[in-house]
Automatic annotation (TrEMBL):
Native source species: Lacihabitans soyangensis
GO molecular function, one term: UDP-glucose 4-epimerase activity
Cofactors that this protein relies on: NAD(+)
Family under the similarity heading: Belongs to the NAD(P)-dependent epimerase/dehydratase family.
Name this protein carries in UniProt: UDP-glucose 4-epimerase
Pathway of action: Carbohydrate metabolism; galactose metabolism
A single Gene Ontology CC term: cytosol
UniProt keyword terms in alphabetical order: Carbohydrate metabolism, Isomerase, NAD
Length: 339
């Protein structure tokens, strides 16, 4: 199957490209490089031994996306491309709604025009809002999200469900990610945020290596084990493999199919636990301090992942310790490359 990977030069997208190739799929990347780097393509070539077809383009551009789909006889799409910074979305909601919802609608229209059936959508555990009970399962009611970013994912899921209810000849799976971290064990690709990171681990590694003077933990007065936020941290390679499993399931369907899956480890770790584990496995001391809570942050969330295990035949294989070792190896590689 030829698979279009939107946002394929990004953190999760690039690792998924590797796992697609490992599983026998032929990926094609489209990415506007607004939050990624062209250097990722070199890392992919070093891992895979060949150049993956790449187009620098906007997923909101119908004619360009349609032409790529036709040129490569695309049979499946994995749609990652979206703005994803929770804090920025609170400050710039219009930017997030326009891009994240608009690009999904465009992808769906291209699928209609080209008769592409299979779509894996990059969703998020943010659709659960501040849950009443954890772990959350796929049956946990979606609540008002804590940020415009989260709301774009909730709205996108509603759109996809409505498309299938209409009888559209498509097979769609939404994967609700928890918190991807780590890097490929080759240290050829990893998380490469432009500017100030919006995720915890790049802030940790950049502080450890001296790019940033200190790490701020946003709040220590939450109702958690140590007062800091609790999240489900999943190795990005495990997350990438879930997309392969989703495509394998879609290939067995005959249209008008929709389902959602939690993709996580099934357990939570606090921000302070992650910092302490990072220090332990890498033999480092981090300069961090406690700051005020950050707008849009959920107190604690982690997922029940039994459905993905049972139906997708998928489960995580890598530990938090491995994730944090790989993230640090990637940061060291960036330093050696003067990035």
């Amino acid at each position: 199957m030829n698979v279009l990977v939107t946002g394929g030069a990004g953190f999760i997208g690039s690792h998924t490209v590797v796992e697609l190739v490992n599983a026998g799929f032929s990926p094609v990347i489209i990415d506007d490089l607004s939050n990624s780097s062209i250097t990722v393509l070199t890392g992919l070539k070093n891992i895979l031994g060949f150049d993956v077809p790449f187009y620098q383009a906007d997923c909101n551009d119908f004619s360009t996306v349609e032409s790529i789909v036709k040129k490569h006889d695309i049979q499946g799409i994995i749609h990652f491309a979206a703005f994803k910074a929770v804090g920025e979305s609170v400050q710039k909601p219009i930017k997030y709604y326009k891009n994240n919802i608009g690009s999904l609608l465009n992808i769906l229209e291209v699928m209609q025009a080209t008769s592409v059936q299979n779509l894996v959508f990059s969703s998020s555990c943010t659709v659960y809002g501040e849950p009443d009970l954890i772990p959350v399962s796929e049956e946990t009611p979606k609540k008002k999200t804590e940020s415009p970013y989260g709301n774009t994912k909730a709205i996108a899921e509603d759109i996809l469900e409505d498309v299938i209810k209409s009888g559209e000849n498509m097979n769609i799976i939404s994967l609700r990610y928890f918190n991807p971290i780590g890097a490929h064990d080759s240290a050829e690709i990893g998380e490469l945020p432009n500017g100030v990171p919006s995720n915890l681990i790049p802030f940790v590694t950049q502080t450890a290596i001296g790019k940033r003077p200190k790490l701020v933990v946003f709040g220590n007065d939450y109702d958690t084990v140590d007062g800091s936020n609790v999240r489900d941290f999943i190795h990005v390679v495990d997350l990438a493999k879930a997309h392969v499993a989703a495509l394998d399931l879609l290939k067995t369907k005959n249209g008008t199919f929709y389902d959602v899956f939690n993709i996580g480890t099934g357990k939570g770790n606090s921000v302070l636990e992650v910092i302490q584990t990072f220090e332990k496995v890498n033999g480092l001391k981090l300069n961090y301090e406690i700051g005020p809570r950050r707008a849009g942050d959920v107190e604690k969330i982690y997922g029940n992942v039994e459905k993905a295990s049972k139906i997708l035949n998928w489960k995580t294989e890598k530990t938090l310790e491995e994730s944090l070792k790989d993230a640090w190896a990637w940061e060291l590689k960036l330093k050696n490359n003067n990035n």
